[in-house]
Structure formats: C-alpha cells, structure tokens
Write a structure and sequence with these properties.
two-stranded antiparallel sheet; single chain; seven-stranded mixed beta sheet; 6 helices; Rossmann fold; globular; alpha/beta
Length: 239
C-alpha cells in the first residue's frame, strides 16, 4: 500500500499529540495516511506496552488511518545505528510515502530528538540503491519521500509552516483521549500521576493549538518545522 502521508514517531500518542489534526484532515480529504510508532512506550510510568498498543489502535480507528504499525525498537535505549536504520528503511520502502512527519528535532524528552535524527538519516539512506533490503522474500526498490517535517512537541520551536486544523480539532482531541492510561486521569487513580496525566496537560495542548492558530487567524493550527527551504507554486494558496 502506497501512502500519501506517514507519521513516524517514537511513542504511541506522539502522532496524535503533534499531528492528529493533519492526520484527520488528510484522511477526510481521501489521502492514504499511516502511523508507525518506533517503540511500544514500554518505559512509560503509566500503563503497559499491551495497554498502549490497544489504545494506539483505538486512536487509529478514531482518525481513520489506513495502517498503523509498531516497529518495537527498544524504548529509551534505541540507537541511531545500522540495525535501527534498516528497520525504518524497510518501512519507508514498503509504504513509499510522499510526506513523512516525525518527532521534534529537540525536545524535553530525549527520545524525541534522537528519533528525529534516526528517521531523518534513514529517509536519506532509503533512497540509495546500493542499500539492499527485502520484505516477504522480495527485494525492495529504493525510495525517498519528497518532504520530511518535524512536530512541535513540548518545547516550543518556531514553526516553518502552520496548518489550519480547526475543523478537525475534536477528532484530534478524541484520538489523544483514547490513551486512557495516559491522559486526563482522575486523582484517585492507583498509578502515579505524571507530567501528561494531569488534565492541565490537555488544556495546555489546546492552548498551544489556539496560539498557533491565532498566527494565521484561525481557531486551531498545528505547526511543523522543516530542515530545508519550503517552496510553493501558488502564493494565493497561502494565508
């Protein structure tokens, strides 16, 4: 299956938090959209790998994505090495996405920046024909997406592009709250409270989207950074 957009992020829930709006938007517009989680988030304070896998599938169903996979790299300890790069290269060549969105280049959680660098390096290598990979016994063709973008996550980074997600905010929020072990947890829950489990975290997530939206005179927006200069064919398509 060829994808138009692939969101490839390190933890289950990163895709929804940073790009749930554009995922819902492009699914609604008929694009083929997929999510690949690099790890199972097994080191998280709350929940388990099994619980988070089910939550990820629930969130994927809300957003309507065509595919969601987990590469099961080691949470917290994955490295930007040949083994990890080849795992990502196989996925990229399998789905041939036009656009890939990955984690922030630099963020509060060290996995985010490391994952971003890993995905970026693997995307370049995926286009080299002398790197041989196969899936299901068949050789894969080299492929390199035409655009990679990074999320804006906990640490505020000036975006290079903002996308109006006002129409899709409710779906984004529902997909985040599908992670019931992680977000909006009541105070009498038996597991420890975390930075993201407090309801105030969702309030700040909404406020961030509103702040970004205000910059382009819409209610909600998502922001992304690019590692190259972006170009457009039509100035009249811009806000």
């Amino acid at each position: 299956m060829k994808l138009d957009l692939l969101v490839m992020t390190v933890h289950p829930d990163d895709a929804e938090l940073g790009a749930g709006g554009i995922i819902a938007k492009y699914v609604a517009e008929g694009k083929k959209v997929g999510i690949i989680d690099l790890t199972q988030g097994e080191l998280g304070t709350r929940g388990t790998a099994e619980i988070r896998l089910q939550e990820a599938q629930d969130a994927a169903a809300i957003l309507g994505v065509a595919v969601r996979e987990n590469l099961k790299l080691r949470d917290g300890f994955f490295q930007n090495n040949e083994e990890s790069q080849l795992t990502i290269i196989r996925a990229i060549r399998k789905y041939k996405p036009e656009i890939v969105v990955t984690n922030a280049l630099d963020d509060r959680h060290p996995d985010h920046g490391r994952a971003s660098k890993l995905v970026n390096d693997a995307l370049f290598l995926a286009g080299l024909r002398r790197i041989m990979t196969e899936t299901d016994g068949h050789n894969q063709e080299p492929f390199r997406p035409r655009l990679q973008l990074q999320l804006i996550q906990d640490k505020y980074i000036q975006p290079n592009i903002l996308i109006d997600i006002t129409e899709y905010w409710d779906l984004k929020e529902r997909s985040i709250l599908a992670y019931t072990s992680q977000f909006n947890v009541e105070g009498d829950d038996k597991e420890p409270q975390t930075y993201i489990s407090n309801p105030d975290f969702m309030a700040s997530t909404r406020a961030r989207a509103q702040e970004l939206g205000r910059s382009i005179q819409v209610k909600y927006a998502e922001g992304f950074t690019a590692r190259k200069i972006l170009g457009v064919k039509d100035l009249f398509q811009l806000y």
